[in-house]
Structures are given as structure tokens and as C-alpha cells.
Amino acid sequence: MSENATRVRDVRPEDAFDVEAVHAWLAPRVPALDGRPSPQVRQFSGGASNLTYLLDYGDLDLVLRRPPHGHKAASAHDMGREVRVQQRLRLHLDVVAEIHGFCEDPSVIGSEFYVMERLRGTILGRKLPEGVELPPEQARVLGATAYDTLADLHSIDVDQAGLADLGRGPGYVRRQVEGWSRRFRDALTDDVPPAGELMAWLAEHQPQEVRASLLHGDWKLDNLVLDLSGTPRITGVLDWEMATVGDPLMDLGASLAYWVTADDDEEFGLVSDQPSILPGMPTREELVERYLARTGLRTGNWTFYEVFGLFRLAVIIQQIWARYRSGHTTNPRFANFGFAAAVLLERAERLAGCR
To answer: What are the Aminoglycoside phosphotransferase domain coordinates in residue numbering (predicted)?
Structure first.
């Protein structure tokens, strides 16, 4: 994970687990742990879905991932799916972590979990880590590299990778629109707009699917581990829990919902946790053009993908906000998520012409 120490903190009491039980389960699976005592455990503060922990064994660091507590969407937080994607994709993409073990037995810590290698490098948040500089020319290279890598992911042959069965065949766009609309209604709280016209617009303006590709599902800078010692390059990609097979332009639209630029309105700027506003960063339009040139794909109605991406992100934030409102999580990072969901919905409605 990140070398930025501010992203690692003491484990929140609500997220604690039996460290001795994890060590007893893990030690036989990792030869380097033979004879070692249990690790010191810290929690990564980044991420708003699955929980991520640092297992510190002194000169060896590992990372544990597990689902959160409380209500969860039925298809979310599938540890086995996340593990399988990384194990198979690692053969085709050199930025995927090695998995050391997957525990399906909930009696160990109360849920499934897996342990993987710690990917070394820098992870960028809204503000650059102390001591990190990203001048305009490097920022531009980083933005381009991030979306070149996404294009390369989308160009992997899913049959050859053994991951074609992650998808459900034709109808991906329809299923996405219907599914995220349903999730939004299920998580709606009384302080967030109901967005009925927006959901109707999405249902009425669905484009034809361009092809079936492997999708990351949450592609953004703070899921990329970076080497910034020279020309920026990606050394690792994190958080594969939403990976699936479907229309790659839907994945691109979902990703660019996070890509706030310096000329965007102030409220939208508050939503992003990545430094895409830095001087030199490409615009959304430039990234779309670059991606299409690299993949050879075409889109006749980019507005749909942009609106969908904003709506989808609003739903993800709203689901977390509903958990926070109900007391299932007390993470202070989520205290303004209701406001963030409303901002995204309003922006999507303006682009769709619903306002």
C-alpha cells in the first residue's frame, strides 16, 4: 500500500479482529512467517468500502482485506471474486498484487478475508504527500499513464485470461442502469433528492454496447500505487472488488466522475479525493480522446457515460451515507457524504438536461 504514513492509523474499535487467529491461519501459508510472532496491525484510512489493514511483521509487511460490518449490497464485498480476478489477471498485467491466502471460513474473524503482498510506492490523495512534488509536465504524464493503463486493461482478452464468466452477457448497460437505480432507491435518505427524472433519463438514453471487456469498476488515482522518482509510472493497482466483464465505456465514464479539474465548480471540487486539479493534469475531454485512440473504440453519445458515471458515484456515496446515518459505521470521513451525493446528482441532472 502507500508509503504515505498518514494513510495508516490505529485500528478503529469497530473494525478490530482477532490478530492471533489470523496469524495462526496465515503462518502455514507463508513460509517467511515460520517462527515469527503475531504482527502489529494498523488500518489504512483510505477506501470507503472493504476494510484494509497493514500486517507488520518487522521486515515483512502484508496487507489484509475484509468486508465492512453492517448492511451490505448482496453482490458487494465478494472476497472470492476479488481474489480470483487478481490471481488470473496477474498473468496478463504486471501491476496486480500477489495473493498469499484467501480464508473462506468466517469463524476465523467473522468474515471472509484475504492477505496479499504490500505494493510499494506512493498513493495520492487530494493533497500531495509531504515531500512529493508533481510539476505540470509530470502531472500530465501521470494522468495520461493512468488512462493508458485502463485502456490496456480493457484490451485484455477476457477468454484468454479465464475471466469471461464474470460477465452475464449482453445487456450490461441495461443491468447497470437498473441495478444502480435500484440501489439508490434502497439507500435513499430523506436529506437527498430522489432523482426520479435522472433515473428515467438514463433508462431512455442507453447506447448500444461497444464490446465486452474486463472492467476494474473503481479506477481512480488513489487506487493506483505509483513510482514518482522519475517519469511517473504505475507499480500497482488496488481494489478489484467491483471488477466484472462489460462495456468498457461504462468503466471509463465511472472513472472520470472522480476526475475534477481546476475549472469545475467549487462544490463538485469538494467531492474528489484525488489531485486531478493540479496544473498540467489532462482534462476529461483529453483523456476520453486519448483512451478512444488507444483502444480504437468509438462513442456517439459521451454525455450518457458521463451522466451515468456521476449517478453511479452518487449511489456509492449514498449507500455509505445511509450506513453512517444508521450507525453501522462511525468513520468521520463519511460525515459529509449526504452533501456529496446531492452535489453529484445535481451535476448529473444538469448534464442530462433534467434541470
So the answer is: 41-269
Q: Are 275 and 127 in contact (CB under 8 A)?
A: yes
Residue 58, domain extent: 5-117
Local confidence pLDDT in tens for the 355 residues of the chain: 333 434 789 999 989 999 999 999 999 999 999 999 999 999 987 655 689 999 999 999 999 999 887 545 444 558 888 999 999 999 999 999 999 999 999 999 999 999 999 998 999 988 898 889 999 999 999 999 999 999 999 999 999 999 999 999 999 999 999 999 999 999 999 999 999 999 999 999 999 999 999 999 999 999 999 999 999 999 999 989 889 999 999 999 999 999 999 899 989 988 888 999 999 999 999 999 999 999 999 988 899 999 999 999 999 999 999 999 999 888 888 999 999 999 999 999 999 998 6
The grid cell for 145 is 499513464
CATH code assigned at 70? 3.30.200.20
Nearest in space to 54 (alpha carbons), one of 96, 1, 121, 14: 1
- Total domains in the fold of the chain: 1
Q: Is residue 23 part of a domain?
A: yes
Residue 88 lies in a domain: yes
Encode 52-77: b = buried (16+ Cβ within 10 Å), e = exposed: bbbbebeeeebbbbbbbeeebeeeeb
324 part of a folded domain: no
Q: Does any domain span residue 345?
A: no
